[in-house]
Design goal:
The two termini are 15 Å apart. Strand 15, helix 10 (305-313) and strand 16 form a beta-alpha-beta unit. The protein is built from ten helices and 16 strands. The protein is an alpha/beta fold. Bound molecules: NADPH dihydro-nicotinamide-adenine-dinucleotide phosphate (NDP). NADPH dihydro-nicotinamide-adenine-dinucleotide phosphate binds next to helix 1, helix 2 and helix 3.
């Protein structure tokens, strides 16, 4: 038996609880991992609370990411004792996930833990930090550099936002941070934000084109915010869209695309090809240090996960939550 955050739905009743699960019930996979650390992501919070239909079948063990040690391996990619890392691939949605003492997984989903990261450091970064890095890489692939101009980060106090602010600042970019929590301005400035914007400036329906203020953006918010972010992007700029914290809709016009030639680049961390994952994680390992991780991440245990999920969705948690298993 092992401990896991188990989500069940019976007779329209949706429940999440810390349960003892039989190892014999683990799903199929060629690698058994002893989980060291996982995290509480926005998507995990949606799955645990049932606020969005993230979980595709029941019962489900929550947790879209994990870092741990291989304890059994039927494949050739990993050996017993190897330290591994997983983000996405539908784990915690369609396949039992990382908020558990053990996980049985397909080796093709796993990458080796980068050499200079511990499992705790990797999960302090987690899917949020990895997604922020994918956004930064995408901006640069589209030709943006630190000399191009300011980069706007929305949802700046969240997991993706905090990492985006910190990574961009570390790479020499001038960062504008949009937040609904101005009381956390000092935190954002400590991460490297040069300017703080009240998110109210962006969250209501705006004009098709607005004053050009940033050359690039990392948006984890969607909806009117993303439309306004595009409308305020300088000529030829690039917006990366990775989230929907405000909403799934995108009530925009084509004006910024056809009159200012801006690019909107979608970012998906879940099905991202292995080479891009490894590149993002290696860059994270070079960019992020312990001081930054302790500023952004707070640690909880498996039995604190379920109440923390509600607080995360209420916007009461700053930065990242790493879960010690
Ligand atoms: P968090 O909950 O940690 O952060 C979200 C932040 O968005 C909040 O801290 C808040 O920032 C802001 N926010 C929340 N509600 C609203 C609102 N109604 N209007 C405007 N801003 C709002 O989540 P994560 O950072 O982990 O994830 C952010 C988004 O990115 C989620 O939608 C998540 O699903 C998505 N995501 C997508 C991935 C992908 O592969 N594409 C991977 C990882 C995450 P503040 O208080 O500073 O305003």
């Amino acid at each position: 038996m092992f401990k896991a955050v188990l989500i069940q739905q019976q007779d329209e009743r949706y429940t999440a609880r810390l349960a003892q699960v039989d190892e014999a019930d683990l799903p199929e996979g060629d690698v058994l991992v002893e989980v060291g650390y996982s995290t509480l992501n926005y998507k995990d919070a949606l799955a645990i609370t049932g606020k969005s239909p993230v979980v595709r079948h029941f019962p489900m063990v929550a947790g879209i990411d994990l870092a741990g040690t291989v304890i059994e391996s039927d494949g050739t990619k990993f050996n017993v004792g190897d330290q591994v890392l997983l983000n996405g691939w539908g784990v915690g949605e369609k396949h039992w996930g990382g908020l558990a003492e053990k996980a049985c997984l397909k080796s093709e989903w796993l990458i080796p833990l980068p050499q200079n990261l511990t499992p705790k450091q990797a999960m302090s970064i987690g899917t949020a930090g990895y997604t922020a890095m994918l956004c930064v890489n995408a901006l640069e692939e589209q030709g943006i550099t630190a000399k191009s101009g300011s980069i706007l980060v929305t949802g700046a106090n969240g997991g993706v936002g905090s990492f985006a602010v910190a990574i961009l600042a570390k790479l020499g970019y001038r960062v504008m941070a949009s937040t609904g929590r101005p009381a956390e301005s000092e935190y954002l400035k400590a991460l490297g934000a040069a300017e703080i914007i009240d998110r109210a400036q962006l969250s209501e329906k705006g004009k098709p084109l607005m004053k050009e203020r940033w050359i690039g953006a990392v948006d984890s918010v969607g909806s009117h915010t993303l439309a306004n972010v595009c409308a305020g992007t300088q000529y030829g700029g690039v917006v990366t869209a990775c989230g929907l914290a405000q909403g799934l809709d995108f009530p925009a016009t084509v004006a910024p695309f056809i009159l200012r030639g801006i690019t909107l680049k979608g970012i998906d961390s879940v099905m991202c090809p292995e080479a891009k994952r490894i590149q993002a994680w290696q860059r994270l390992a070079q960019t992020v240090d312990d001081g930054l991780l302790s500023a952004i991440s707070s640690e909880i245990t498996l039995d604190e996960v379920i109440p923390a999920a509600t607080r995360l969705l209420n916007g009461e948690i700053r930065g990242r939550v790493v879960v010690k298993i």
